[in-house]
Amino acid sequence: MSALDKKDAKLAALLQIDGRMPNARLAEQLHLSEATCWRRHKRLEELGVIEGYQAIFNRRKVGASVLAFVQITCTQHSEAATAEFERIIQSSSRVLSCHNTTGEADFLLQVVAKDLDDYSHFVETVLRQLPGVSSIRSNLSLREMKATSHLPVEELLGL
């Protein structure tokens, strides 16, 4: 990948704040011509630095009052069991993220549900049906103090 410069990093930061910011405003903020700004923006997309755009919803306002962090430990690590595990997790809209981790658990999931009954149903009908699962440990979020997907691009690039 071609190296990103300070203007690219600033463009990335601005787009993380407002992905719908008009090119004219971006160019103004970056002290660039509109054409140059548009080319940089397209280059970030072509390089795969920008993977897409989305609206960020308030989970509580759409009925997801429960946020759970779920640690899953597996006894089976065969290729078939892993493929089936991944297929089920990928197809579950309740699972916001899933990470294969180091430590005691094999996987860490972030799961949303309407309420505790809904979460309990999800555990019984989805998580307990995953192949090779020996342990499911849930931690429920009592209060969310910070949630972001914004990356500190300038910091990470050392700019």
TrEMBL record:
GO terms for biological process: response to amino acid. The keyword Transcription applies. The keyword DNA-binding applies. It holds the Pfam family HTH_AsnC-type. Residues 4-65 form the HTH asnC-type domain. PROSITE patterns: HTH_ASNC_2 (PS50956). Keywords: DNA-binding, Transcription, Transcription regulation. One of its GO terms (molecular function) is sequence-specific DNA binding. GO terms for cellular component: cytosol. PANTHER family: LEUCINE-RESPONSIVE REGULATORY PROTEIN, TRANSCRIPTIONAL REGULATORY PROTEIN. This is AsnC family transcriptional regulator. It comes from Vreelandella aquamarina. The lineage of its organism: Bacteria, Pseudomonadati, Pseudomonadota, Gammaproteobacteria, Oceanospirillales.
